[in-house]
């Protein structure tokens, strides 16, 4: 058990049978009435974000999340197969469970699996990945306005805005948190 007074960003807790990670919190001490903690929590099972208010000093369950290294092997329809790097056990996740992550996953890529008491909650991507540009418009000479960008499609199917000097075949670093171009690899 953990007190809500000890909330930290990134802490994982169990509330009403669901697993949440703390995105944001604020201790509030009104002039009249008891103190409370206002928090923003992300449900790790379905990805929904909720705002929750707790009384100061209230205790809730601490959820110990396990991260293990796995390799993404292949996709078969809507199922995606992974292999544990230590035990070589294979398991599958559906496209619904990996909706955002599929924009960055390539075969044989190493990622971390997030699980709670044997239940797989999802995967944790590195902060940036290298992806090859497969389709983009050619640069037009003289089109050099400040900060001009164009659309590029990378090998996973993700469309990103890139500077005009990027061509097909270039390898880019893409930020997995926002899905934006960082730099050339």
From TrEMBL:
It is found in: Cytoplasm. Residues 67-121 form the Translation elongation factor P/YeiP central domain. Its main location: cytoplasm. SUPFAM superfamilies: Nucleic acid-binding proteins, Translation proteins SH3-like domain. It comes from the Bacteria. It holds the Pfam family EFP. InterPro entries: Elong-fact-P_C, NA-bd_OB-fold, Rib_uL2_dom2, Transl_elong_fac_P/YeiP, Transl_elong_KOW-like, Transl_elong_P/YeiP_cen, Transl_elong_P/YeiP_CS, Transl_elongation_fac_P. Keywords: Cytoplasm, Elongation factor, Protein biosynthesis. GO terms for molecular function: translation elongation factor activity. Residues 129-184 form the Elongation factor P C-terminal domain. One of its GO terms (cellular component) is cytosol. GO terms for biological process: peptide biosynthetic process. PROSITE patterns: EFP. Pathway: Protein biosynthesis; polypeptide chain elongation. The keyword Zinc does not apply. Belongs to the elongation factor P family. Involved in peptide bond synthesis. Stimulates efficient translation and peptide-bond synthesis on native or reconstituted 70S ribosomes in vitro. Probably functions indirectly by altering the affinity of the ribosome for aminoacyl-tRNA, thus increasing their reactivity as acceptors for peptidyl transferase. This is Elongation factor P. The gene is efp.
């Amino acid at each position: 058990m953990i007190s809500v007074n000890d909330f930290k960003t990134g802490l994982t807790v169990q509330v009403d049978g669901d697993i949440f990670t703390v995105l944001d919190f604020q201790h509030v001490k009104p002039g009249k009435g008891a103190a409370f903690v206002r928090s923003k929590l992300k449900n790790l099972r379905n990805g929904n974000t909720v705002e929750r208010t707790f009384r100061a000093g209230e205790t809730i369950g601490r959820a110990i999340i396990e991260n293990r290294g796995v390799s993404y092997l292949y996709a078969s329809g809507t199922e995606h197969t992974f292999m544990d790097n230590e035990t070589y056990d294979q398991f599958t996740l559906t496209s619904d469970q990996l909706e955002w992550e599929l924009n960055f996953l390539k075969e044989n890529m190493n990622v971390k699996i997030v699980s709670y008491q044997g239940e797989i909650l999802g995967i944790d991507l590195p902060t940036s990945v290298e992806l090859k540009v497969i389709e983009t418009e050619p640069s037009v000479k003289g089109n050099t306005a400040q900060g001009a960008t164009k659309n590029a499609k990378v090998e996973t199917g993700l469309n990103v805005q890139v500077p005009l000097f990027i061509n097909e075949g270039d390898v880019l670093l893409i930020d997995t948190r926002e899905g934006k171009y960082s730099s050339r690899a």
